[in-house]
Amino acid sequence: MHGFANPARFLRLARWLTPLCLLPGIAIAAVALAYGLIWAPADRLMGDTVRILFLHVPAAWLGMAGWMTIAGASVTELVWRHPLAAIAARAAAVPGAVFTALCLATGSIWGRPTWGTWWVWDGRLTSMLVLLFLYFGYIALSDVARRDGGNGRVAAIFGIVGAINVPIINRSVVWWNSLHQPPSITMGKSAIDAAFLWPLLAAAFGFTLIFAGVVLMRMRAILAEAQAEARLRRKAFAADEAAEAFGGFA
User: Fold this and answer.
1) Is the distance from CB of 153 to CB of 78 less than 8 angstroms?
2) Which residue ranges run through the membrane (predicted)?
3) Can you give the chain as a three-state secondary structure string?
4) Is the Cβ–Cβ distance between 177 and 10 less than 8 Å?
5) Is 36 helix (H, G, I), strand (E, B) or coil?
6) Secondary structure tally for the chain: helices H, strands E
7) Sign of the C-alpha dihedral, residues 72, 91, 64, 129?
8) Is the dihedral of CA 26, 29, 33, 35 positive or negative?
9) Pairwise CA distance, residues 148 & 126, whole Å
10) Nearest-10 crossing angle of helices 85-115, 153-162
11) What is the distance between the alpha carbons of residues 83 and 6, in angstroms, rounded to a whole number?
12) Where do runs of H (alpha helix) occur along 81-152?
């Protein structure tokens, strides 16, 4: 794990790994979405509205996976002091929030013809909305730590504590009566027809690759920004020293 603690070594790896994630991810997700929108059969009960499944489910998965990435990176930061852990957590926050918002938006669009309403305050929808607010809170805390030069421990602790919400999201349809359907895919079993299951898994895999590529891109951008700020500070310090030396000489 500490083998990639050196930013230069990480950047060399990320430089070729980023397109390796992004390009296949975009291709796989595009094919899966095209199948879902054009060729997938209509559902017996929900009709053509079921086609939003191919975007809604991957978005929900990556909203939760994004926060687990934050939590895992936060543990790594606090326990092992890995220098890139906080950067990885920050990089995962924005795409995780985007996928969570996309999940909520597509769920509302799907719910209107299926349930007759855009929104209900049931366990699954409410806990997913809480996740979006947790993302906003984490982004704000990490930005404050970066701007004020803090060590980010508060943001890391928040990232770990917020992970409690992920199993609540996962089990909410089992624990409480809900309009939301129960889990369709469980360990070793699936209630989804093969005509939907395999392209759905392909879409989830494609979007996961896109998520990984975006996180790597953001990590590279954060490191580049930090390096640029360090160079500016060194130049400013050198300029101050030169000015003091010149003033002393005068």
Assistant:
1) yes
2) 20-40, 60-80, 92-111, 123-142, 154-176, 196-217
3) CHHHCCHHHHHHHHHHHHHHHHHHHHHHHHHHHHHHHHHCCCECCCEHHHHHHHHHHHHHHHHHHHHHHHHHHHHHHHHHCCCCHHHHHHHHHHHHHHHHHHHHHHHHHHHHHHHCCCCCCCHHHHHHHHHHHHHHHHHHHHHHHHHHCCCCHHHHHHHHHHCCHHHHHHHHHHHCCCCCCCCCEECCEECCCHHHHHHHHHHHHHHHHHHHHHHHHHHHHHHHHHHHHHHHHHHHHHHHHHHHHHHHHC
4) no
5) helix
6) 7, 2
7) positive
8) positive
9) 33
10) 40
11) 8
12) 85-115, 123-148
Which helix (H) or strand (E) element contains residue 185? strand 185-186
Question: b/e string for 134-150 if b means 16 or more Cβ within 10 A?
Answer: bbeebbebbeebbeeee
Model confidence over 9-41: pLDDT tens digits? Answer: 888 899 999 999 999 999 999 999 999 888 888
Residue type, 113: P
The residue with tokens 């920004």 is: 225
What SS3 state is found at 47? strand
Q: What is the Cα–Cα distance from 83 to 73, expressed in whole angstroms?
A: 10
Residues 6+ apart with CB under 8 A from 63: 96, 97, 99, 100, 102, 103, 128, 131, 132
Element (H, E) at 186: strand 185-186
pLDDT tens-digit readout, 108-163: 999 998 888 999 998 999 999 999 999 999 999 999 888 776 668 999 999 999 99
What b/e string do you get for 189-209 counting C-beta neighbours within 10 Å, with b at 16 or more?
A: eeeeeeebeebbbbbbbbbbb
